[in-house]
Each structure stands twice: as C-alpha cells, then as structure tokens.
Design goal:
mainly alpha; Recoverin, domain 1; two-stranded antiparallel sheet; 2 strands; about 55% helix; globular; EF_Hand_1_Ca_BS; Centrin_CML-like
C-alpha cells in the first residue's frame, strides 16, 4: 500500500466538497478551472480507472495507489 500522505494535498485540491472522495464532477470542475476541456465521459473513465471498490468515487487510498503506480 503506498503512503497516502504524499498525495493528500493534491487529493484535497480535487475533493472540492471535502467528503473524502473524488467524483467525476469534481474532476471535471478541476480540469476546467485549469483550462482543460474535460468532458463528463472522460472524467467518468478516469474515475473508473482509479476506482478499485466500484463505488464510482476515488478515495485517497485509491488515488495514492494509482499515482504511485505511474512513477
């Protein structure tokens, strides 16, 4: 299990409502704020790729696991 603390600050930026889960709509909002045209479908695909428990949301643990696997 990757260390979640190194990803917590980034995760918190995306988790706009602070509920401990990232939704596709939060991801779309972040990407649009950054100037990237992210569609709802693209965000849903991204969430699906990271979502290991099937709840259609990304937890900090799932986020950390995904990010650490990319390095």
């Amino acid at each position: 299990m990757p260390e979640t603390s190194e990803y917590a600050a980034t995760f918190a930026l995306v988790d706009a409502d602070g509920d401990g889960r990232i939704t596709a709509s939060e991801l779309v909002a972040l990407m649009r704020n950054l100037g990237d045209e992210c569609t709802d479908e693209q965000a849903a695909e991204t969430v699906s790729a990271m979502d290991s428990d099937g709840d259609s949301r990304i937890s900090l643990e799932e986020f950390a696991r995904f990010m650490s696997s990319r390095g």
